[in-house]
Amino acid sequence: GDSIITVQLTEEDKVEDDVVFYLVFTGSTVQHCTSTRKINPGSLETISPGHDCCETVKVALCASREGHPILVVAEESFQFVQDEAYDAAQFLASCAGNQQALNFTRFLDRSRPPAADVDFLDEKVALAFRHLKLPAGWNVLGADQSLTENIPRETLMHFAVRLGLLRLTWFLLQQPGGRGALSIHNNEGATPVSLALERGYQKLHQLLTEEGAREPDSWSTLSHTLHSGDYSVKHHHGLDVYLLTAEA
Question: Which intervals of the chain form a coiled coil (predicted)?
């Protein structure tokens, strides 16, 4: 999701300014509707929705005008593919509580990728995590809930904080076990909170310690999402377009 889609209109579709165009994506279990922004009389822009699975969906370009029926101007297929960020999110989700796998992820820390790469990784993996179908009962601390906070171990929260992944940390905080992970020490005696402080991640430390800390802004383009039952509405500030997602 969150890629820019450009729609080129044919000559006969270039109509009056009071016509509103939008795209409808119909998947197997989820449907999305996006508004569009007119770049010029022949071109529209919008944002691709984040989908819940890798599949080919039907996308319809619709036109709406007050006092007239809605018209389907064109139809096309649109393919959601599995990328590296999705693979990484799936791997990390399966690593929850797996000490061997979590210790392996510490190799990433030794290379210390540049800040721009960290920002890109954070945004893409956090976005992919949002659209993963996490199994029922999934927990940041893993499946074994009998372990106490006094047992030293690595957690997904240690991983996210160690690399400075602000948005992924926020996502994990909202999941079962997220807050509990903040007080768990690893084998070096570090908690996620102390790691953030030690590495000078001020925003991350504030996110972990301040009451009422808000979701960090997106790195590339600011957006805001509201959820209500089976529906969500996302406003993309950059293009000033809206995305409605509904479970079929």
Answer: none
Residue whose token pair is 């999305």: 32
Residue among 69, 74, 89 at smallest CA distance from 23: 74
What phi and psi values does residue 35 have, to the nearest 5 degrees?
-75, 170
d(CA 127, CA 111): 23
Phi and psi angles of residue 229, each rounded to the nearest 5 degrees, phi first = 60, -125
> What does the pLDDT look like over 175-215, one tens digit per residue?
999 999 998 998 889 999 999 999 899 989 998 988 777 77
pLDDT in tens, 77-97: 999 888 888 888 888 898 888
DSSP string spanning 90-154? HHHHHHTT-HHHHHHTTHHHHH---HHHHHHHHHHHHHHHHHS-PPTT--TT-S-TT--TTS---
Please count the other Cβ atoms lying within 10 Å of the Cβ belonging to residue 216.
Answer: 16
Neighbouring-strand partners of residue 33: 24, 244
Distance CA 84, CA 146 (A): 33
With residue 5 as reference, give the H or E element that holds it: strand 4-8
Break the chain into its structural domains and give their ranges. Answer: 3-81+223-247, 84-215
CATH of the structural domain 84-215, one choice from 1.10.8, 3.90.660, 2.30.30, 1.25.40: 1.25.40
